[in-house]
Write the C-alpha coordinates for this entry.
Amino acid sequence: MIATSLRSGVEQLGDMIAEAAIIVPFTGAGISTETGIPDFRSPGGLWTRNKPIPYDEFVASQDARDEAWRRRFAMEPTFAAAKPGRGHRALASLYKAGKIPAIITQNIDNLHQASGFKTDDVIELHGNTTYARCIGCGKSYELSWVKTRFDADGLAPSCIVCDEPVKTATISFGQAMPEAEMHRAAELARQCDLFIAIGSSLVVWPAAGFPLLAKNAGARLVIINNEQTEQDEHADLVIRHDIGETLGPFVGN
Ligand code: NAD
Protein backbone atom coordinates (compact mmCIF):
# COMPACT_ATOMS: atom_id res chain seq x y z
CA MET A 1 0.00 0.00 0.00
CA ILE A 2 1.40 3.40 -0.93
CA ALA A 3 1.19 6.06 1.78
CA THR A 4 -1.07 8.87 0.56
CA SER A 5 1.15 11.56 2.06
CA LEU A 6 4.45 11.93 3.87
CA ARG A 7 2.57 12.51 7.10
CA SER A 8 0.45 9.41 6.81
CA GLY A 9 3.54 7.40 5.81
CA VAL A 10 5.43 8.57 8.90
CA GLU A 11 2.43 7.76 11.11
CA GLN A 12 2.00 4.27 9.71
CA LEU A 13 5.72 3.61 9.94
CA GLY A 14 5.66 4.81 13.56
CA ASP A 15 2.89 2.31 14.37
CA MET A 16 4.76 -0.51 12.67
CA ILE A 17 7.97 0.35 14.53
CA ALA A 18 6.08 0.41 17.84
CA GLU A 19 4.51 -2.98 17.12
CA ALA A 20 7.72 -4.66 15.96
CA ALA A 21 10.06 -6.61 18.24
CA ILE A 22 12.91 -7.06 15.75
CA ILE A 23 13.46 -4.50 13.00
CA VAL A 24 16.02 -5.05 10.26
CA PRO A 25 16.85 -2.11 7.99
CA PHE A 26 18.34 -2.69 4.57
CA THR A 27 19.96 0.41 3.13
CA GLY A 28 21.15 1.56 -0.28
CA ALA A 29 22.85 4.62 -1.68
CA GLY A 30 19.69 6.75 -1.31
CA ILE A 31 20.13 7.06 2.47
CA SER A 32 23.44 8.84 1.88
CA THR A 33 22.50 11.32 -0.86
CA GLU A 34 21.62 14.00 1.70
CA THR A 35 25.16 13.69 3.08
CA GLY A 36 26.53 14.73 -0.33
CA ILE A 37 27.48 11.25 -1.63
CA PRO A 38 25.73 10.70 -4.97
CA ASP A 39 23.88 7.45 -5.58
CA PHE A 40 24.27 5.32 -8.70
CA ARG A 41 21.00 5.49 -10.55
CA SER A 42 19.38 8.86 -9.84
CA PRO A 43 19.81 11.46 -12.60
CA GLY A 44 23.37 12.77 -12.27
CA GLY A 45 24.30 9.70 -10.18
CA LEU A 46 27.67 8.00 -10.45
CA TRP A 47 26.34 5.44 -12.93
CA THR A 48 25.55 8.10 -15.50
CA ARG A 49 29.05 9.58 -15.26
CA ASN A 50 31.31 6.58 -14.73
CA LYS A 51 30.34 3.07 -15.72
CA PRO A 52 31.59 0.80 -12.95
CA ILE A 53 34.80 -1.11 -13.63
CA PRO A 54 34.04 -4.85 -13.43
CA TYR A 55 36.22 -7.03 -11.22
CA ASP A 56 37.82 -9.06 -14.03
CA GLU A 57 38.87 -5.86 -15.77
CA PHE A 58 40.43 -4.56 -12.55
CA VAL A 59 42.37 -7.80 -12.13
CA ALA A 60 43.49 -8.00 -15.77
CA SER A 61 44.52 -4.43 -16.52
CA GLN A 62 46.90 -1.96 -14.88
CA ASP A 63 45.07 0.82 -16.78
CA ALA A 64 41.76 -0.21 -15.24
CA ARG A 65 43.33 -0.27 -11.78
CA ASP A 66 44.86 3.16 -12.29
CA GLU A 67 41.49 4.50 -13.44
CA ALA A 68 39.68 2.89 -10.48
CA TRP A 69 42.06 4.54 -8.02
CA ARG A 70 41.96 7.89 -9.88
CA ARG A 71 38.15 7.87 -9.49
CA ARG A 72 38.37 6.83 -5.85
CA PHE A 73 40.75 9.63 -4.96
CA ALA A 74 38.60 12.11 -6.90
CA MET A 75 35.71 11.11 -4.60
CA GLU A 76 37.76 11.31 -1.40
CA PRO A 77 36.83 14.90 -0.45
CA THR A 78 33.14 13.93 -0.76
CA PHE A 79 33.48 10.76 1.33
CA ALA A 80 35.69 12.47 3.91
CA ALA A 81 33.26 15.36 4.38
CA ALA A 82 30.10 13.21 4.68
CA LYS A 83 28.50 13.03 8.13
CA PRO A 84 25.59 10.71 8.99
CA GLY A 85 22.27 12.10 7.74
CA ARG A 86 18.81 11.98 9.33
CA GLY A 87 18.21 8.47 8.00
CA HIS A 88 21.44 7.15 9.50
CA ARG A 89 20.74 8.90 12.81
CA ALA A 90 17.16 7.62 13.04
CA LEU A 91 18.31 4.03 12.51
CA ALA A 92 21.09 4.52 15.08
CA SER A 93 18.46 5.71 17.59
CA LEU A 94 16.36 2.57 17.04
CA TYR A 95 19.52 0.46 17.35
CA LYS A 96 20.37 2.17 20.64
CA ALA A 97 16.82 1.55 21.83
CA GLY A 98 17.31 -2.19 21.21
CA LYS A 99 14.81 -2.44 18.34
CA ILE A 100 17.41 -3.12 15.65
CA PRO A 101 19.87 -5.98 16.26
CA ALA A 102 21.97 -5.26 13.16
CA ILE A 103 21.71 -3.48 9.83
CA ILE A 104 22.18 -4.83 6.30
CA THR A 105 23.68 -2.32 3.89
CA GLN A 106 24.74 -2.16 0.28
CA ASN A 107 26.59 1.04 1.09
CA ILE A 108 30.33 1.29 1.23
CA ASP A 109 30.60 4.70 2.90
CA ASN A 110 30.99 3.67 6.57
CA LEU A 111 28.24 6.10 7.64
CA HIS A 112 26.25 3.55 9.68
CA GLN A 113 29.34 2.90 11.79
CA ALA A 114 29.88 6.67 12.06
CA SER A 115 26.29 7.08 13.30
CA GLY A 116 26.80 4.70 16.22
CA PHE A 117 26.39 1.12 15.00
CA LYS A 118 29.10 -1.27 16.21
CA THR A 119 31.20 -2.52 13.29
CA ASP A 120 30.03 -6.10 13.91
CA ASP A 121 26.41 -5.01 13.62
CA VAL A 122 26.81 -3.49 10.15
CA ILE A 123 26.47 -6.24 7.55
CA GLU A 124 28.24 -4.79 4.52
CA LEU A 125 27.15 -6.74 1.45
CA HIS A 126 29.31 -4.69 -0.89
CA GLY A 127 32.25 -3.99 1.36
CA ASN A 128 33.72 -0.67 2.46
CA THR A 129 35.54 2.00 0.47
CA THR A 130 37.24 3.71 3.39
CA TYR A 131 40.15 1.26 3.34
CA ALA A 132 41.85 -1.08 0.86
CA ARG A 133 42.71 -4.76 0.65
CA CYS A 134 45.05 -6.96 -1.39
CA ILE A 135 42.90 -9.12 -3.65
CA GLY A 136 45.39 -11.98 -3.23
CA CYS A 137 46.22 -12.37 0.46
CA GLY A 138 43.61 -9.97 1.89
CA LYS A 139 46.12 -7.72 3.69
CA SER A 140 44.46 -4.42 4.70
CA TYR A 141 45.91 -1.07 3.70
CA GLU A 142 45.05 2.50 4.64
CA LEU A 143 43.98 4.64 1.69
CA SER A 144 46.84 7.01 2.53
CA TRP A 145 49.32 4.17 1.84
CA VAL A 146 47.82 3.68 -1.62
CA LYS A 147 47.70 7.43 -2.27
CA THR A 148 51.39 7.95 -1.48
CA ARG A 149 52.40 5.24 -3.97
CA PHE A 150 49.87 6.30 -6.58
CA ASP A 151 51.04 9.92 -6.40
CA ALA A 152 54.67 8.87 -6.78
CA ASP A 153 54.32 7.23 -10.21
CA GLY A 154 50.61 7.36 -11.20
CA LEU A 155 50.34 3.58 -10.90
CA ALA A 156 47.95 1.59 -8.73
CA PRO A 157 50.16 -0.26 -6.25
CA SER A 158 50.52 -3.99 -5.55
CA CYS A 159 50.67 -5.78 -2.22
CA ILE A 160 54.01 -5.67 -0.40
CA VAL A 161 53.50 -9.28 0.71
CA CYS A 162 52.27 -11.12 -2.38
CA ASP A 163 52.47 -8.55 -5.21
CA GLU A 164 48.78 -8.95 -6.13
CA PRO A 165 46.73 -5.78 -6.83
CA VAL A 166 45.43 -3.64 -3.96
CA LYS A 167 41.78 -2.58 -4.31
CA THR A 168 39.29 -0.65 -2.18
CA ALA A 169 37.69 -3.15 0.21
CA THR A 170 34.51 -3.12 -1.87
CA ILE A 171 32.73 -5.79 -3.89
CA SER A 172 32.82 -4.90 -7.60
CA PHE A 173 30.47 -6.19 -10.27
CA GLY A 174 31.59 -9.73 -11.10
CA GLN A 175 33.29 -10.24 -7.73
CA ALA A 176 32.10 -12.97 -5.36
CA MET A 177 29.76 -11.82 -2.60
CA PRO A 178 31.12 -12.12 0.96
CA GLU A 179 29.83 -15.45 2.28
CA ALA A 180 29.62 -14.71 5.99
CA GLU A 181 27.78 -11.44 5.35
CA MET A 182 25.30 -13.06 2.96
CA HIS A 183 24.60 -15.77 5.52
CA ARG A 184 24.12 -13.31 8.38
CA ALA A 185 21.88 -11.06 6.26
CA ALA A 186 19.68 -14.01 5.36
CA GLU A 187 19.38 -14.99 9.02
CA LEU A 188 18.42 -11.45 10.00
CA ALA A 189 15.86 -11.24 7.21
CA ARG A 190 14.26 -14.48 8.41
CA GLN A 191 14.24 -13.47 12.09
CA CYS A 192 12.82 -9.97 11.90
CA ASP A 193 9.17 -8.97 12.03
CA LEU A 194 9.72 -5.63 10.29
CA PHE A 195 12.09 -5.22 7.34
CA ILE A 196 12.63 -1.68 6.03
CA ALA A 197 14.27 -1.24 2.61
CA ILE A 198 15.59 2.32 2.46
CA GLY A 199 17.02 4.11 -0.58
CA SER A 200 17.77 1.11 -2.73
CA SER A 201 16.65 0.75 -6.33
CA LEU A 202 16.42 -3.00 -5.48
CA VAL A 203 17.90 -4.03 -8.81
CA VAL A 204 21.39 -5.12 -7.71
CA TRP A 205 21.26 -8.88 -7.07
CA PRO A 206 21.70 -10.94 -4.98
CA ALA A 207 21.36 -8.14 -2.39
CA ALA A 208 17.92 -7.22 -3.74
CA GLY A 209 16.63 -10.65 -2.69
CA PHE A 210 16.58 -9.86 1.04
CA PRO A 211 13.33 -7.82 1.19
CA LEU A 212 11.38 -10.70 -0.34
CA LEU A 213 13.15 -13.25 1.81
CA ALA A 214 11.99 -11.32 4.88
CA LYS A 215 8.47 -10.90 3.53
CA ASN A 216 8.16 -14.59 2.68
CA ALA A 217 9.38 -15.49 6.16
CA GLY A 218 6.51 -13.49 7.68
CA ALA A 219 7.92 -9.99 8.26
CA ARG A 220 6.12 -6.81 7.31
CA LEU A 221 7.94 -5.05 4.49
CA VAL A 222 8.31 -1.27 4.20
CA ILE A 223 9.99 0.41 1.22
CA ILE A 224 11.15 4.01 1.48
CA ASN A 225 12.29 5.49 -1.83
CA ASN A 226 11.40 8.67 -3.68
CA GLU A 227 10.92 6.60 -6.84
CA GLN A 228 9.02 3.47 -7.66
CA THR A 229 10.92 0.20 -7.18
CA GLU A 230 10.34 -3.19 -8.75
CA GLN A 231 9.34 -4.61 -5.39
CA ASP A 232 6.74 -2.04 -4.33
CA GLU A 233 3.89 -4.45 -5.05
CA HIS A 234 5.17 -6.81 -2.34
CA ALA A 235 5.44 -4.15 0.36
CA ASP A 236 2.96 -3.65 3.19
CA LEU A 237 3.82 0.05 3.10
CA VAL A 238 5.54 2.13 0.42
CA ILE A 239 6.65 5.63 1.40
CA ARG A 240 7.55 7.41 -1.82
CA HIS A 241 9.20 10.43 -0.22
CA ASP A 242 12.57 11.78 0.78
CA ILE A 243 14.38 9.54 3.29
CA GLY A 244 15.59 12.38 5.52
CA GLU A 245 12.05 13.79 5.72
CA THR A 246 10.57 10.35 6.40
CA LEU A 247 13.04 9.17 9.03
CA GLY A 248 13.84 12.58 10.57
CA PRO A 249 10.97 12.23 13.11
CA PHE A 250 12.58 9.00 14.41
CA VAL A 251 15.90 10.60 15.33
CA GLY A 252 16.17 10.28 19.14
CA ASN A 253 18.10 12.39 21.57
P1 NAD B 1 20.97 3.03 -6.42
O1 NAD B 1 21.74 4.25 -6.79
O2 NAD B 1 20.74 1.99 -7.45
O3 NAD B 1 19.56 3.46 -5.86
C1 NAD B 1 19.38 4.51 -4.96
C2 NAD B 1 17.89 4.67 -4.79
O4 NAD B 1 17.64 5.62 -3.78
C3 NAD B 1 17.21 5.17 -6.06
O5 NAD B 1 16.10 4.34 -6.31
C4 NAD B 1 16.80 6.61 -5.72
O6 NAD B 1 15.57 6.93 -6.32
C5 NAD B 1 16.67 6.56 -4.23
N1 NAD B 1 16.99 7.83 -3.55
C6 NAD B 1 18.10 8.60 -3.72
N2 NAD B 1 18.09 9.64 -2.86
C7 NAD B 1 16.93 9.53 -2.14
C8 NAD B 1 16.34 10.32 -1.12
N3 NAD B 1 16.94 11.41 -0.61
N4 NAD B 1 15.13 9.93 -0.63
C9 NAD B 1 14.51 8.82 -1.11
N5 NAD B 1 15.04 8.04 -2.07
C10 NAD B 1 16.24 8.38 -2.58
O7 NAD B 1 21.67 2.43 -5.14
P2 NAD B 1 21.65 0.96 -4.55
O8 NAD B 1 20.32 0.32 -4.71
O9 NAD B 1 22.25 1.09 -3.19
O10 NAD B 1 22.65 0.11 -5.48
C11 NAD B 1 23.80 0.64 -6.02
C12 NAD B 1 25.13 0.12 -5.51
O11 NAD B 1 25.99 1.23 -5.49
C13 NAD B 1 25.16 -0.36 -4.10
O12 NAD B 1 25.42 -1.69 -4.15
C14 NAD B 1 26.33 0.33 -3.40
O13 NAD B 1 27.35 -0.59 -3.14
C15 NAD B 1 26.87 1.29 -4.39
N6 NAD B 1 26.91 2.72 -3.99
C16 NAD B 1 27.08 3.05 -2.68
C17 NAD B 1 27.12 4.39 -2.31
C18 NAD B 1 27.32 4.71 -0.86
O14 NAD B 1 27.95 3.92 -0.14
N7 NAD B 1 26.83 5.84 -0.37
C19 NAD B 1 26.94 5.40 -3.27
C20 NAD B 1 26.76 5.02 -4.60
C21 NAD B 1 26.75 3.67 -4.96
